[in-house]
Structure formats: structure tokens, C-alpha cells
Specification:
Blueprint: H1 2-60
Length: 65
Amino acid sequence: MKAELESLEDKVLLLIQLYRDARVENNQLREALVTSHAQCDALSEKIHIAADRLETLLLVLPDNE
């Protein structure tokens, strides 16, 4: 009986450690996701600015007719 309780205790301690590790990893992944979204938003803004500039340039270029 004592061996079974010790085995159960070891398993519970392992479960607690795995839970803590998973929480740390999830927090890191959340932070990475926030950073990725911010980078994506910044790149999207740059694309829109570049597209607007190209559109403006196309409007002022003379036709080649």
C-alpha cells in the first residue's frame, strides 16, 4: 500500500510539473502570437502605403499612345 501511495504521489507531482510547463509554454506562445499579429499589421500597412504610392504614380504617368 505504501508503494502504491508513493507511486501515486510521484505521478501527481509529475502531472503538476507538466501542467506548470504547459502554462509557461502557453504564455510564451500567446506573447509570440501577439508579436506576430503586430508585425502582420505593420506589414499590411506598408503594403497599403506602397499600393497607394503606385496608384498615384500610375495616375501621373503619361500614356504611351
